[in-house]
Amino acid sequence: MAVHLFILALLWAAYGALHSLLASLAVKRWMIARWPGFGPEYRLFFNGVAVILLLPPLLLTFAWRGPLLWEWRGGWAWLANLLAVAAGVGFCWTLRYYDVQTFLGLRQWRQGGDTPGGQEQFHLSPVHRYVRHPWYCFSLVIIWTRDMDPAFLISSMIITLYFWLGSRLEENKLLACHGAVYARYRERVPALFPLPWRYLSRPEAEALLSARQPSAGE
Question: What is this structure's pTM?
């Protein structure tokens, strides 16, 4: 079991490192400079590689299940499952505020409109008024409301660490792209979990959006 857990931890760590490397602007610029026509396909390539590389650690997490370390029971199980369902619904609900085709890379692939440092236009969904990374937040709720065995605990801990580190790396790109507007947003809204005393009211969010820098093509 210890060997299995060590291998699993290495796989998750390798996945996180490679995912962050491919997401970096430096690697994207290098690949586009080497293959100039690759820009429009990069996002699609990145997502495809991310899904494929996710399969080994994810499958082993469930294949190497062991005795439970803790299990939600009774009213706590109802609460845990209710939170997980609410997080899943919240995740699906936020999709309406994203350009999913652009996120997946399908639009860039079809239209050929990507650039080495391209970022989506700065926007705020209702959930973004309370947390900067709602998908990470919802995912963490789902993960930590599950019953835990050693393999799932190791996976959960490394995924949580990666979400924290990955969000910081992602925000460096957002700051470079959106400048002072994103810096102001980051000062007001927490990263991964909502805090009652830190959020944007609707007028504040609208004022922030009105101050954003126009994206290329606007």
Answer: 0.85
pLDDT value at 16 more than 70:
yes
pLDDT of residue 116 exceeding 60: no
Give pLDDT, residue 75.
93
SS3 per residue for the chain: CHHHHHHHHHHHHHHHHHHHHHHCHHHHHHHHHHCHHHHHHHHHHHHHHHHHHHHHHHHHHHHCCCCCCECCCHHHHHHHHHHHHHHHHHHHHHHHHCCHHHHHCHHHHHHCCCCCCCCCCCCCCCHHHCCCCHHHHHHHHHHHCCCECHHHHHHHHHHHHHHHHHHHHHHHHHHHHHCHHHHHHHHHCCCCCCECCECCCHHHHHHHHHCCCCCCCC
Q: Residue 55 above 50 pLDDT?
A: yes
